[in-house]
Protein backbone atom coordinates (compact mmCIF):
# COMPACT_ATOMS: atom_id res chain seq x y z
CA UNK A 1 0.00 0.00 0.00
CA UNK A 2 1.41 3.36 -1.00
CA UNK A 3 1.50 6.16 1.54
CA UNK A 4 0.42 8.53 -1.22
CA UNK A 5 -3.01 6.85 -1.25
CA UNK A 6 -3.42 7.47 2.46
CA UNK A 7 -2.26 11.08 2.08
CA UNK A 8 -4.76 11.56 -0.73
CA UNK A 9 -7.50 10.17 1.47
CA UNK A 10 -6.53 12.45 4.35
CA UNK A 11 -6.72 15.47 2.03
CA UNK A 12 -10.08 14.40 0.64
CA UNK A 13 -11.53 13.72 4.07
CA UNK A 14 -10.24 17.05 5.38
CA UNK A 15 -12.02 18.90 2.58
CA UNK A 16 -15.23 16.97 3.29
CA UNK A 17 -15.07 17.75 7.01
CA UNK A 18 -14.42 21.41 6.18
CA UNK A 19 -17.52 21.42 3.95
CA UNK A 20 -19.68 20.49 6.96
CA UNK A 21 -18.17 23.36 8.94
CA UNK A 22 -18.64 25.82 6.08
CA UNK A 23 -22.23 24.67 5.58
CA UNK A 24 -22.86 25.48 9.23
CA UNK A 25 -21.08 28.83 9.34
CA UNK A 26 -21.75 30.46 5.95
CA UNK A 27 -25.59 30.49 6.22
CA UNK A 28 -25.20 32.71 9.28
CA UNK A 29 -24.17 35.46 6.89
CA UNK A 30 -27.09 35.05 4.48
CA UNK A 31 -30.06 33.59 6.38
CA UNK A 32 -31.74 35.69 9.07
CA UNK A 33 -32.15 33.83 12.34
CA UNK A 34 -30.21 30.82 11.11
CA UNK A 35 -29.31 28.24 13.73
CA UNK A 36 -28.83 24.48 13.85
CA UNK A 37 -31.90 24.11 16.09
CA UNK A 38 -34.13 27.01 15.08
CA UNK A 39 -33.86 26.52 11.32
CA UNK A 40 -32.84 22.88 11.40
CA UNK A 41 -34.07 21.92 7.94
CA UNK A 42 -32.12 24.79 6.40
CA UNK A 43 -28.99 23.56 8.16
CA UNK A 44 -29.72 19.97 7.17
CA UNK A 45 -30.04 20.76 3.47
CA UNK A 46 -27.06 23.10 3.64
CA UNK A 47 -24.90 20.26 4.97
CA UNK A 48 -26.36 17.73 2.55
CA UNK A 49 -25.75 20.00 -0.43
CA UNK A 50 -22.22 20.91 0.62
CA UNK A 51 -21.18 17.32 1.31
CA UNK A 52 -22.74 16.13 -1.94
CA UNK A 53 -21.00 18.79 -4.02
CA UNK A 54 -17.62 18.18 -2.37
CA UNK A 55 -17.88 14.39 -2.67
CA UNK A 56 -18.71 14.51 -6.36
CA UNK A 57 -16.00 17.07 -7.11
CA UNK A 58 -13.22 15.51 -5.03
CA UNK A 59 -13.74 11.95 -6.25
CA UNK A 60 -14.04 13.12 -9.84
CA UNK A 61 -10.79 15.10 -9.60
CA UNK A 62 -8.99 12.21 -7.91
CA UNK A 63 -10.30 9.74 -10.48
CA UNK A 64 -11.54 7.37 -7.79
CA UNK A 65 -14.74 6.32 -9.54
CA UNK A 66 -14.50 3.21 -11.76
CA UNK A 67 -13.61 3.92 -15.39
CA UNK A 68 -16.47 3.92 -17.85
CA UNK A 69 -16.71 0.93 -20.14
CA UNK A 70 -17.94 3.22 -22.88
CA UNK A 71 -17.23 6.85 -23.63
CA UNK A 72 -20.39 7.50 -25.59
CA UNK A 73 -22.68 10.31 -24.51
CA UNK A 74 -25.67 7.98 -24.20
CA UNK A 75 -23.76 5.70 -21.80
CA UNK A 76 -22.68 8.65 -19.62
CA UNK A 77 -26.24 9.99 -19.54
CA UNK A 78 -27.55 6.53 -18.63
CA UNK A 79 -24.98 6.21 -15.82
CA UNK A 80 -25.86 9.65 -14.45
CA UNK A 81 -29.57 8.84 -14.63
CA UNK A 82 -29.09 5.53 -12.79
CA UNK A 83 -27.00 7.27 -10.14
CA UNK A 84 -29.74 9.85 -9.54
CA UNK A 85 -32.37 7.11 -9.47
CA UNK A 86 -30.38 5.05 -6.92
CA UNK A 87 -29.96 8.10 -4.72
CA UNK A 88 -33.68 8.90 -4.78
CA UNK A 89 -34.58 5.26 -4.06
CA UNK A 90 -32.09 5.32 -1.19
CA UNK A 91 -33.86 8.34 0.31
CA UNK A 92 -37.22 6.54 0.20
CA UNK A 93 -35.66 3.37 1.59
CA UNK A 94 -34.10 5.21 4.54
CA UNK A 95 -37.38 7.05 5.09
CA UNK A 96 -39.24 3.73 5.26
CA UNK A 97 -36.70 2.17 7.61
CA UNK A 98 -36.76 5.18 9.94
CA UNK A 99 -40.58 5.06 10.08
CA UNK A 100 -40.45 1.33 10.87
CA UNK A 101 -38.08 2.17 13.72
CA UNK A 102 -40.65 4.51 15.24
CA UNK A 103 -40.54 7.86 13.43
CA UNK A 104 -43.94 9.52 12.83
CA UNK A 105 -45.64 8.18 9.71
CA UNK A 106 -47.52 11.31 8.65
CA UNK A 107 -46.62 13.93 11.22
CA UNK A 108 -43.18 15.46 10.54
CA UNK A 109 -42.99 13.55 7.24
CA UNK A 110 -40.88 16.33 5.69
CA UNK A 111 -38.44 16.19 8.59
CA UNK A 112 -38.19 12.40 8.33
CA UNK A 113 -37.56 12.49 4.58
CA UNK A 114 -34.99 15.26 5.04
CA UNK A 115 -33.18 13.06 7.56
CA UNK A 116 -33.27 10.26 4.96
CA UNK A 117 -31.69 12.63 2.41
CA UNK A 118 -28.87 13.41 4.84
CA UNK A 119 -28.22 9.71 5.50
CA UNK A 120 -28.23 8.98 1.77
CA UNK A 121 -25.72 11.78 1.24
CA UNK A 122 -23.37 10.34 3.86
CA UNK A 123 -23.68 6.75 2.60
CA UNK A 124 -25.28 6.08 -0.79
CA UNK A 125 -23.80 9.09 -2.54
CA UNK A 126 -20.30 8.04 -1.50
CA UNK A 127 -21.01 4.55 -2.86
CA UNK A 128 -22.05 6.11 -6.15
CA UNK A 129 -18.92 8.30 -6.26
CA UNK A 130 -16.50 5.47 -5.44
CA UNK A 131 -18.19 2.40 -6.95
CA UNK A 132 -20.64 3.84 -9.44
CA UNK A 133 -24.26 2.63 -9.82
CA UNK A 134 -23.19 -1.00 -9.43
CA UNK A 135 -25.16 -2.81 -6.75
CA UNK A 136 -22.98 -5.93 -7.06
CA UNK A 137 -19.90 -3.83 -6.22
CA UNK A 138 -21.73 -2.36 -3.22
CA UNK A 139 -22.57 -5.86 -1.95
CA UNK A 140 -18.95 -6.92 -2.45
CA UNK A 141 -17.53 -3.96 -0.54
CA UNK A 142 -19.83 -4.44 2.43
CA UNK A 143 -19.27 -8.18 2.60
CA UNK A 144 -16.48 -9.70 4.64
CA UNK A 145 -13.03 -8.99 3.17
CA UNK A 146 -14.67 -7.37 0.17
CA UNK A 147 -12.60 -4.17 0.06
CA UNK A 148 -10.29 -3.89 -2.95
CA UNK A 149 -8.73 -0.50 -2.15
CA UNK A 150 -8.20 1.97 0.67
CA UNK A 151 -11.22 3.88 -0.64
CA UNK A 152 -13.41 0.79 -0.22
CA UNK A 153 -12.21 0.44 3.36
CA UNK A 154 -12.86 4.13 3.95
CA UNK A 155 -16.37 3.68 2.56
CA UNK A 156 -17.01 0.82 4.97
CA UNK A 157 -15.87 2.84 7.99
CA UNK A 158 -17.61 6.13 7.19
CA UNK A 159 -20.87 4.38 6.33
CA UNK A 160 -20.82 2.37 9.56
CA UNK A 161 -19.99 5.45 11.65
CA UNK A 162 -22.79 7.48 10.02
CA UNK A 163 -25.37 4.77 10.65
CA UNK A 164 -24.23 4.16 14.23
CA UNK A 165 -24.24 7.91 14.92
CA UNK A 166 -27.80 8.23 13.61
CA UNK A 167 -28.90 5.27 15.74
CA UNK A 168 -27.27 6.64 18.90
CA UNK A 169 -28.82 10.03 18.22
CA UNK A 170 -32.29 8.54 18.70
CA UNK A 171 -31.70 7.60 22.34
CA UNK A 172 -32.18 11.10 23.89
CA UNK A 173 -35.49 11.77 22.06
CA UNK A 174 -37.86 9.98 24.50
CA UNK A 175 -36.12 11.39 27.59
CA UNK A 176 -38.12 14.05 29.44
CA UNK A 177 -35.43 16.73 29.32
CA UNK A 178 -37.34 19.23 27.16
CA UNK A 179 -34.25 20.31 25.24
CA UNK A 180 -34.46 21.92 21.76
CA UNK A 181 -32.15 19.30 20.26
CA UNK A 182 -34.56 16.53 21.29
CA UNK A 183 -37.13 17.61 18.71
CA UNK A 184 -37.36 15.11 15.86
CA UNK A 185 -35.05 14.63 13.99
CA UNK A 186 -32.45 17.04 15.37
CA UNK A 187 -30.56 14.61 17.60
CA UNK A 188 -30.52 11.93 14.89
CA UNK A 189 -29.22 14.28 12.21
CA UNK A 190 -26.58 15.61 14.60
CA UNK A 191 -25.66 12.04 15.53
CA UNK A 192 -25.34 11.04 11.87
CA UNK A 193 -23.24 14.13 11.14
CA UNK A 194 -20.90 13.56 14.07
CA UNK A 195 -20.71 9.90 13.10
CA UNK A 196 -19.79 10.87 9.53
CA UNK A 197 -17.11 13.28 10.76
CA UNK A 198 -15.79 10.61 13.12
CA UNK A 199 -15.57 8.17 10.21
CA UNK A 200 -13.62 10.71 8.16
CA UNK A 201 -11.04 10.88 10.96
CA UNK A 202 -11.01 7.22 11.95
CA UNK A 203 -10.75 5.75 8.43
CA UNK A 204 -7.29 7.16 7.49
CA UNK A 205 -5.96 6.48 10.99
CA UNK A 206 -7.19 2.88 10.98
CA UNK A 207 -5.87 2.24 7.47
CA UNK A 208 -2.50 3.80 8.32
CA UNK A 209 -2.23 1.76 11.51
CA UNK A 210 -3.07 -1.49 9.71
CA UNK A 211 -1.42 -0.72 6.38
CA UNK A 212 1.05 -3.60 6.70
CA UNK A 213 -1.74 -6.09 7.30
CA UNK A 214 -4.04 -4.78 4.58
CA UNK A 215 -3.58 -6.46 1.23
CA UNK A 216 -5.96 -5.73 -1.60
CA UNK A 217 -6.45 -8.19 -4.39
CA UNK A 218 -8.59 -8.03 -7.48
CA UNK A 219 -11.72 -10.12 -7.23
UniProtKB/TrEMBL annotation:
InterPro entries found in the cross-reference section: GPI_biosynthesis_protein_Pig-F (IPR009580)
Membrane topology designation: Multi-pass membrane protein
Originating organism: Atractosteus spatula
Coiled-coil region(s): none
Protein name according to UniProt: PIGF protein
Record-level GO cellular component terms: endoplasmic reticulum membrane
Keyword Nucleotide-binding: no
Keyword Ribonucleoprotein: no
Pfam families given in the database record: PIG-F
Gene that specifies this protein: Pigf
GO biological-process terms attached to the record: GPI anchor biosynthetic process
Transmembrane segments: 12-30, 42-62, 83-106, 112-132, 153-171, 183-209
Metabolic or biological pathway: Glycolipid biosynthesis; glycosylphosphatidylinositol-anchor biosynthesis
Amino acid sequence: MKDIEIKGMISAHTIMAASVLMATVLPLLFVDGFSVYGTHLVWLYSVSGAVAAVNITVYWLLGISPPSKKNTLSYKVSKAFRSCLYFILSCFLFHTVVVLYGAPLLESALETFSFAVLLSTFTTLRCLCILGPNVQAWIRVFSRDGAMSVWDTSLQITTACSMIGAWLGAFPIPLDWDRPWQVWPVSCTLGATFGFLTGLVVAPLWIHWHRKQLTYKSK
